Amino acid sequence: MTEEIRPDSWRVALVTGASRGIGYGIAEALVARGDRVCITGRDQEALREAAERLGADRVIGVAGKAHDTDHQRAVVEQVMEAFGRVDYLVNNAGSNPVFGPMADLDLAAARKVFEINVFSALGFAQQTWRAWQKEHGGAIVNIASVAGVSASPFIGAYGMSKAAMVNMTLQLAHEFSPGVRVNALAPAVVKTRFAKALYEGREEEAAASYPLGRLGAPEDVAGAAEFLLSERAGWITGQTLLIDGGIFLNAGLG
Hints:
- By secondary structure, this protein is an alpha/beta fold.
- It is built from 7 helices and 7 strands.
- A 7-stranded parallel β-sheet has the order 3-2-1-4-5-6-7, with helices on both faces.
- Helix 1 crosses helix 7, helix 3 runs parallel beside helix 4 and helix 4 runs parallel beside helix 5.
- It is globular, with a radius of gyration of 18 Å.
């Protein structure tokens, strides 16, 4: 007779910006190991389709704008109602609508980048902390970028926001310890719709600059996130892991 899986044996994750790309890949990895997952995004239909592919018995989708504080609160409330807990948070929602030199940066657009990339992540961290993690523990993974740990020509606002996420990871890791571990992942170019402008029409050329000879794939990031959201990473917090195909090895070549 098959042993029944009880709700108190589940682990539950909230993954923002997860209807496709890196977020979807992370959700898929967590579902595969048995977690229940809530995914968020702006497009209700895209979320519904993603949840069906992942398994409607294990996944719920809640549509809304990541930087909307009412949305943040509603998402966590729905996770608690559906699954009774929220052990893990993956802050993946992001935006990069600004391209050009810093001298010409539209400050209003830059503020919007920070609202979506930084303040939404902090808001979700506050909500999951209050709802579950403060009393029960858990783990958080923030999806930063190599743009946040190096110069990032023509996407400076994005790079600054991701640098803020790296520092926020340190702040939260310190404040939320010992019960909640907080880490970040900093991918280089990953083949997603979000990053298409960085490689479309020149993928072979772009990949040639990476020592490992290819661009990243969502599963490359998902594997690292799944590890950090597991007991195998039980003594790791406050870290930012570069997932870059070795691109930083080129930094000293001149």
